[in-house]
Structures are given as C-alpha cells and as structure tokens.
Amino acid sequence: MKVNLEYLESKLESVNGEEVQRIQDNINSLFHHCVQALGEEHQIKVVNALQTLCALFRGVHQKNKSASGFDIINMLMGFDKAERRMKDLMERLDSLLCGDSSESLKSLCLKLLLCLVTVTDNISQNTILEYVMINSIFEAILQILSDPSSRGQHGYDAVVLLALLVNYRKYESVNPYIVKLSIVDDEPTLDVSMLLLAVSSLKNDGEKQATFSSGRLTTERLISCHSQGMGVVLHQALTEYNRQYKDKEEENQGGFFSTLTSMVGSMFIADVDEKLSVQTNEAILLALYEAVHLNRNFITVLAQSHPEIDIPVTPSTPTPTTPTTPLGTTPPSLDVMNNPELPLDPNLQTSNLLITFLKYASIVMQDTKDEHRLNSARLCLIILTCIAEDQYADAFLHDDNINFRVSLHRMPMRHRKKAAGKNIPSRPLVCAVLDLMVEFIVTHMMKDFPMDLYLRCVQIIHKLLCYQKKCRIRLHYTWRELWSALINLLKFLLSNETTLLAKHNIFHLALLVVNLFNMFITYGDTFLPTSNSYDELYYEIVRMHQVFDNLYCMVLRVSTNTGQWKEAASKVTHALVNIRAIINHFNPKIESYAAVNHISQLSEEQVLEVVRSNYDTLTLKLQDGLDQFERYSEQPKEAAFFKELVGDPMRSSLSLLIQPRYPSRFSFPRPSCHSLISPSVFLTIHSSAVPSVHPLSFHHRSIRPQPVSLLFLLRL
C-alpha cells in the first residue's frame, strides 16, 4: 500500500512529547516492517519501504533536534533492538546495491543513505552512523564506481556519500571508510617515464583481472577500479560545470551591455562585467580532496589523459515548470556519464582531471566574498597544496615531454584586456598552476583581504620552487609576472598597513613573499631557465627598490617598538638582508654609469649590462632553511574547517543535491496480451521521483507516465 510520505513526515514533526511516547511502539514496528519489506521480491513494496524509511529518519530527527542520538535511536527502532535492526537494514541495502535490482531501486537506496547521513547539521553528532561504520557498505560503493553503467547512473551519489562517510568522526575514532579508501597497492613506485603507461595498462587490464566473489568484485581489485571510477565521476561533474559557466559567460557577453561597452569605451567595464553568480559545489571538491589526500595512487588518475571535447548540449525539450536549478547544483546527465572513450586524434587537445580541476578552481577563486565561495576557494588551494607536496604529482607537473594548453578563466579588470584563449602555448602543467596562483595574487588585493588564501597561495608556489631546486628543473616560465605580482602584493600590504594589521598578521605573509625572492636569489642559478632570467630578477629588485626600502622601514619601526608584532616584524627584517645588499650594491653602480655616460634615464638593457658586470663584487649571506617547508597536516590545523564544511554551511548547499524527493507515481508499460510477465519487470519510477543529483544539468526531461492497462491491474 502506498504511503503518504509528506503527511507521515509532517505528522512526526507535529506530535508533542507525550504523543511521541505513546506512538513509539508504532514507530518501532513500522521501522521493523520496512526493513523486512526490503527483502521482498515485489519491487513496489521495496520502493514504499525505502521511501517510508526516508520519512521516518527525517521526521524523527526534525522533531527531536535537541535530543541525544541515543534517544533518537530508541524512538526509531528501540535501543535494545537497534543493533539487529540496523544490521538487517545495511545488509539489505548492500544486497540491493550489489545485486540485480533495477537502477531506480539502487538510486533510492543511495538516496536513503544520503538522507540518513545528512539528517543532522553536524555529521559527527549523528549517532546512527555508528551502525553504518560497523556494517560497512564500502565495497558496494566501490562496485558502483567500478562498473561503467552503474557509475553513469549513480556515480555522483556514490561519490558524495563516500566523501561524507569519510568525514564521520574522523578525528575522534578510527573510521573504517578512511582506512579502506587509503589502501595503497603493493606495486613498486613508478618513475615519471612509466607513469602514463602504468595508468594505461591499469585501465586496459581492469576488466580482465577483475575477479568475482559471491556476485561482487573482490575488494583488492575494486580499490584500483574505484580510483578510476571515482576519477570519471569527478571529471565529468567538473567538466560540465566548466562548460556551463563558459556558456553563461558567453551569453552575458553577447547582450546589450556588451554592445554598449564597445560604444562608450572601457570606462564602464566595472559596471558592465559583473561577476557571474556561481553556485559552488563543495561536495565534489570534498570528494576530490579525500581521494587526493588519503590515496596517493589517485595521483595517477589525475594525470590520466583523454581527448578534450565539448560535452554535447542536450537538445531543447519541453521542460516542466519547476524552479530554475542554480548553476553547480545538478550532476552531469547520464549520456555524459556513459559517454564511451573516443579515439585520440593528433589534432585534438588532450585533457585530464587535473586540468579540469584547475579550470574549475579558476572560476570559483574569482569571487571569494560569499562564504560558500570562500570555502570552495580554500578547499581548492588545500587540494593544490596536497598535489604540490607529492613528488609523483610534481614529476608529472614538471615533465617537459607532457605539455598541455590550459585555458584558465580570468577575472575582468579595468586595466587589462581579456586574454585570447587561442594563443595559449603548450607547456608543462606546473605553468598553469603558477598562472592560477599569479592570477589570484593580482586580483584579490581588496579591503576584505583573504589572508588565509594568500598564505596558501604563496606556500604552494614555494613548494613547487623547492621541487624545482631539488631536481634542478629549469622551467621555461614567465617568471617576471610572478615577481611583479609578489612586489605589488608587498606594495599593497604597505599601503594598507593600519587597516590590515587590525585583522591580520601581515608580517607572516610578507616573510613568505620575501623568502620566495630569497629562494630565487640563493638557488635561482639551479632552476631558472637561463642566466638572463637571473639577471632579470636582479633588475626587477633594483627597479622596484622603493617597495623593499619602504618594507624595511616599516618592519624596522615595528620591531624596535614593544608591541604585538615585534617578533614577527623582526623576522622580516632579517629576511631582507640579501635584497637590501643587492639594492645597496647595484644602485650606486647604476647611478655612476648614468653619470659617466651622461644618460638621464637608462634603458633596461643598459641596467642589465651594469648588473652583469658587477656580480663579482656582490656579497650575499647564505640563508638556511629556504628550501624547507612544513608539510600539510589536516589535524589539528584544518579540523575546524572541515567540520564546518561538512556541517551547517555545507548542508545548505547539499540540500538541493541529496535530499530525496518522494515518487508521486509509477509508470507501467502496457503488457503484451500473449504473455504473462512479472509486474516487477515493468516497474520504472517517474523521473521527478528519483532525480539524479546531477549538479550541473540545466535541462530536466519530463517523462509522461504511461496509462495503466486494466488487464495489467487485474493480473496484479
């Protein structure tokens, strides 16, 4: 019998304390019968049971938000029987997910699990999840992600579910999902030259070596398949997000405002080129972070190349009159998720998950004024931090034999024209990472200064430089853009000293920036591409000497006075010793050269000539620890951030994605009069009933339910 789910949920929320005690036995009985019904062969019973369980979980939790987890468990299933009831529930859900059930039923199972995981604002306060830890469904999630068909239907739900389960009490106790996700294969470490070959062979032998045990893949093989399956889901979600953002950007540029701007000039650019409203997707970023952070084998998935093609836009079809879905809150359509791999074309640009992520990061990092966007930008930088610390990721990033054209999104600004994407050179991927960092540094010097993001950005650059110094990699990059951005950042800190010091320790950031220059000064001859690049470094320092002079005066003033920032400023004073030595050494030489040659203003080449001819008399101090850095550790520094991310702020953005909508009707195809077929074969759930949580689709197809045959009802 079909249940009125809206009524059941609202009724549970409306009853008072005494009524709850009176009907507790009925709730326990209903929960028990729902769990039993999950083992029925008739799919309508199973569907009704899954939906009723969703209503019970949500209704009881909404009514008893202040109650303890044990009271909620007692109200739902009875505390003395809870262990058995949850064991039966998890086993039956596992059986449905791993068996031959219809895709609609599997989707409802995942919706139920997502509903269970997200009923509380703080996931770690959801005591019922202890039973989900004991009765693991990790292998079921892996099986979904390892099978292309299931991955296309349910991959997004499975990835979000896994990301949330990994964050359950991850700091207080041993989380089995973390342990299993972090399993590393026993294969020997691969060097750079074998990296792509290894990925290719892993992909090719994935199905051949898969073994089945009791109708499912073995855990060991699933771990390998899971990494690729998870990578596919993440890549498709981010790819479609990027495409839709690009479409929206082009649509905005082609309207009346674009024409008006071209007529009246660039003086109104700030008013016309408004930032596009972007609905961030922390769920996908969280899943990507956990994969990169917990399983270093996932680095090979980041590097796996494939053709870069535009995802075909679904033809416009009549859509139901439902509220417009915000950009970034619906996953990629099934035809995209199931799209077979295309053959490589020598003229076709290749891409990978890392490139797609960099493009995504360049979008969400543009505007950090909103809390959700700020969290997304922070999470993007944390992911890049983990990648920059991994030596195998660094080897791939810096491989000069593996080049890509990466078109990053750039924030519209008055003083620069929009870059033409066609002129992007093919370079190692580390150049795109550096471009992203430079872009962020240049575009976020504002009153509401994102200090935390700037610190992470500069630290990522430092870690990449440490790898280049260690491996003596001479990267052909436009280092002048980086130096210019860093000097302008110091200039901004000086200009806004009073305002920023009221909120931030600007001396820590200044120290990191100065030490980047010290890295170039001390070790630049080992990783700068040419001697000319080293000369240009000195030229930029001398040319912008006023900024460094002002910085020295400021930190000297603060360090000689008693105050909160005395020690921090003193560190910057000591760090400036070599930069000041360069300025004090070359400035008199340049002035003397100009006086002797009667030149009022020297050209760049003339200054460089003076620099080259006076290296021998320059004395610098050797500074220790410049190529050392503190490795990323989630606990304890980032624990509060991730608790907040998986808590209330993330809950609001996830609510559109993972809270199930209840099926309102079923469609039954007309049966043939010549054969009697089991009604379960015909059962399909209406599209509005079990929506894919695809965060990036603009188009929702409306499937008209088929009329039910009277003969079919009689057979039922």
TrEMBL record:
Source species, domain of life: Eukaryota
Transmembrane helix among keywords: yes
Domain Armadillo-like helical: 421-653
Cleaved signal peptide residues: none
Compartments where located: Membrane
UniProt keyword terms in alphabetical order: Membrane, Transmembrane, Transmembrane helix
Gene Ontology CC entries for this record: cytosol; membrane
InterPro entries, sorted: ARM-type_fold, ARMD3-like, ARMH3_C
PANTHER family xref list: ARMADILLO-LIKE HELICAL DOMAIN-CONTAINING PROTEIN 3
Name used for this protein in its record: Armadillo-like helical domain-containing protein
Record organism: Poecilia mexicana
Record lineage: Eukaryota, Metazoa, Chordata, Craniata, Vertebrata
